[in-house]
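Please decode residue identities from the backbone states below.
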């Protein structure tokens, strides 16, 4: 048993009780044991097997990135300034068709290195060769919700093999790595999976008792095509196919009408809002203030480094806080504390991990980060919630812990070899480019 006592730090807990204070926190093995304001009690001091002076650091829950494709880090900068379908069909998919398992491993390792260094402790990943992504999660020490994304625009025998692969991956990895890996079931999107094929994924999710994840209503063109092909907009279409009878996280949900927002709220469907990717691909701006008002859980995702082009969730937090003020003309929407909740607590909630991660609270897993706040952009030290939402960057993160294990110390990765990952990722990209 190890018990780490952190003293003299500033804490932003994302817990409604005592949300911020100067104080201490005790971590026993993989869980937060206790935390409090002021000086640590004598009993805590005597229980500690290790101590850390938190002076000059701000401690908060690790960030939760609820939508991405880690291995696409290899494609960063490959095809910028394009609309979604052109970008996907003419640039991403042809290159991804050449990916090997090793490309997925090194691309995902590059993403993991970037995410840890910028404060993300839990991420959602949808891709192919998912056991190689799971290996990265196991080795890196991160927490992740992984899902084999399936594009069903292929012959029936290939469809069958892809579904079988998604199911096998779930059986092999759900709950693995001391519970740090969980699995979802993912038809890629309503425009890449015919309705009878989506039904099979819903059935598999029922049989395995797993949540579902998909891209939905990302562009106007997608919504119009769905109406043309199937007679319904994507929300009603997926609801009729039974997807929303399962716990579901949809990525993007940019183009929604009032009825669709009400239905998502009624069904308890969570939305992963990816503001930077939506802006870069000119997909539009999601109706986040309306979704939040309706009671929908809205969390934040980067999408991939090919459409972002970084995996810094602090950028998504500040973008979410700023963007919706700009488009609505109302400076009170998505206030700083709400944007921070979207990057932490709501992220955990949207993947079924509330009560596990996303807050600093006794009993929860010790997934937390420390930012160096002894920097000019954190002065004056008035309101750290404001500073975290509007002034912080991923590069402020100095230390990271997941499951009580330290993954980053003074900005240096402890579980991954950054230099090797960068060299291997360069080599993968050069080979993929041909
Ligand atoms: C089948 S694995 C995941 C699949 O998703 C593609 N992808 C990446 N970003 C987006 C996006 O914004 N919308 C839709 N699909 C996306 C990626 O290229 C993979 O093929
Ligand atoms: Zn995506």
């Amino acid at each position: 048993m190890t018990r780490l006592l952190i003293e003299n730090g500033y804490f932003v807990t994302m817990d409604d009780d005592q949300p911020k204070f100067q104080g201490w926190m005790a971590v026993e093995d993989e869980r937060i044991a206790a935390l409090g304001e002021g000086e640590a009690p004598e009993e805590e001091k005597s229980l500690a097997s290790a101590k850390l002076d938190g002076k000059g650091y701000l401690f908060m829950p690790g960030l939760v990135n609820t939508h991405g494709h880690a291995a696409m880090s290899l494609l960063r900068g490959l095809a910028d300034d394009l609309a979604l379908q052109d970008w996907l069909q003419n640039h991403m998919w042809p290159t991804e068709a050449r990916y090997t398992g090793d490309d997925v491993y090194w691309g995902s390792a590059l993403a993991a290195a970037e995410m840890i260094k910028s404060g993300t402790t839990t991420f959602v990943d949808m891709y192919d060769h998912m056991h190689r992504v799971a290996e990265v999660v196991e080795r890196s020490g991160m927490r992740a919700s992984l899902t084999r994304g399936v594009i069903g625009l292929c012959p029936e025998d290939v469809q069958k093999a892809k579904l079988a692969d998604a199911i096998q991956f779930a059986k092999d990895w759900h709950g693995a790595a001391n519970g740090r890996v969980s699995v979802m079931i993912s038809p890629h999107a309503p425009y890449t999976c015919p309705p009878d094929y989506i039904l099979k994924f819903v059935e598999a999710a029922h049989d395995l008792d797993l949540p579902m994840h998909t891209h939905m209503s990302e562009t106007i063109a997608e919504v119009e095509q769905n109406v043309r092909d199937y007679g319904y907009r994507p929300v009603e279409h997926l609801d009729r196919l039974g997807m929303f009878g399962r716990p579901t996280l949809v990525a993007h949900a940019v183009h929604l009408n009032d009825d669709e927002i009400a239905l998502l709220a009624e069904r308890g469907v969570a939305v992963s809002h990816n503001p930077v990717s939506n802006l870069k691909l000119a997909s539009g701006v999601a109706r986040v203030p309306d979704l939040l008002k309706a009671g929908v859980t809205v969390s934040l995702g980067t999408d991939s480094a090919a459409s972002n082009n970084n995996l810094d969730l602090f950028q998504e937090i500040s973008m979410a806080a700023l963007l919706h003020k700009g488009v609505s003309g109302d400076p009170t929407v998505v206030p700083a504390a709400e944007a921070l909740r979207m990057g932490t607590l709501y992220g955990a909630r949207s993947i079924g991990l509330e009560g596990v991660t996303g807050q600093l609270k006794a009993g929860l897993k010790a997934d937390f980060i420390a930012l160096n706040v002894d920097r000019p952009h954190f002065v004056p030290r008035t309101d750290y919630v404001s500073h975290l939402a509007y002034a912080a960057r991923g590069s402020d993160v100095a230390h990271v812990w997941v499951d009580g294990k330290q993954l980053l110390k003074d900005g240096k990765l402890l579980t991954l070899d950054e230099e090797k990952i960068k060299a291997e990722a360069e080599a993968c990209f050069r080979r993929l480019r041909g």
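Observation: The first strand starts at residue 3 and ends at 12.
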